[in-house]
Design goal:
about 300 residues; Dipeptide-binding Protein, domain 3; 7-stranded mixed beta sheet; globular; 3-stranded antiparallel beta sheet
């Protein structure tokens, strides 16, 4: 940002949210933005107990105040995710996640108790004498405020009796772990970009049971015969209305089964010097269309 203000740079990609109000108010600068196609999610590893229990996953969803997180940590530089794909994607539906899983710590505790847990003297849920201690591999330095989000999630879960241990590494190390056939974490975070703007790109590779790493991107190790059949049928169909209906059914099931928690949908923001003309942000973060761009007076 110093380079932009000093005139050494004309554009800054992904500026800090804290800098945006001052830039927008300064006639010497500009801010270009577009609703992005990337959704940032907290994922569950269903192959690692106790994450196969949907009540644990639903409890964690209820334990997180997603709107507050987006407002306070991201400073409204993103929007609360309404589904596993962005609204700009064909096949998207609003999964009504805030209606299904409003922030409700008491409800989270009730679900954990239904799953056989009770609060011990240390304020940690336990079952058969074993405390509910989960580990998480969060992204760090890859997505907007990713590390800070993990730390806030850690505190939210502490409040309902879940101890969450974070292993924070450089992104290259984290990515390598995520792509391994064997994955030894209960939770993780990742951002997914639907570059084709078609739900097939995300839903097929992320949710079919034959797409576990390293074959695909089903990092949650989620398997459901109904999902497999719906996605196969959608890929085979050439009828847009039929495909949209099939994808809607898939997302409705995912909303109930909670293999992950969509947190935020990106807003692709670029800070500009005041002499930049003709630039428009693209929904895909790494596409910069500079062909129509010019500098005033040049």
């Amino acid at each position: 940002m110093l380079a932009l203000r000093s005139g050494e740079a004309h554009m800054v990609l992904k500026p800090s949210p804290a800098d945006l109000p001052a830039l927008e108010a300064d006639p010497g600068f500009g801010v270009a933005s577009a609703t992005g196609l990337r959704v940032f999610l907290v994922g569950f590893n269903l192959a690692k107990p106790p994450m196969e229990d949907v009540r644990i996953r639903q409890a964690i969803h209820h334990a997180l105040d997603i709107p507050l997180l987006v407002e306070s940590i991201l400073e409204d530089a993103a929007t609360v995710a309404s589904g596993v794909v962005s609204p700009g994607v064909f096949g998207y539906i609003d999964m009504e996640l805030l209606d299904r899983y409003p922030y409700n710590p008491e409800g989270a505790i009730a679900l954990l108790e239904e799953a056989g847990y009770s609060m011990n003297a240390d304020g940690i849920m336990e079952k058969d004498g074993e405390p509910l201690v989960l580990n998480m591999l969060p992204a760090s330095g890859r997505y907007l405020k990713d590390r800070e989000i993990a730390e806030v999630i850690q505190e939210f879960l502490r409040q309902v009796g879940i101890q969450l241990d974070l292993d924070i590494f450089e992104w290259a190390t984290t990515f390598t772990e995520l792509r391994k056939e064997q994955f030894d974490y209960h939770l993780f975070s990742i951002g997914w970009l639907t570059t084709t703007t078609d739900a097939d790109y995300t839903l097929y590779s992320n949710y079919r049971s034959d797409q576990f790493p390293t074959a695909g991107w089903n990092t949650w190790r989620y398997a459901d015969d109904a999902i497999d059949g719906l996605l196969t049928a959608a890929r085979a169909s050439v009828d847009a209305a039929e495909r949209a209906q099939l994808y809607a059914e898939v997302q409705t099931i995912l909303a109930e089964q909670v293999p992950n928690i969509p947190v935020y949908n990106t807003i692709e923001v670029v800070a500009l010097s005041g002499d930049v003309q003709g630039f428009n942000s693209h929904p895909i973060e790494y596409i910069l269309d500079l062909f129509p761009v010019s500098l005033e007076g040049q």
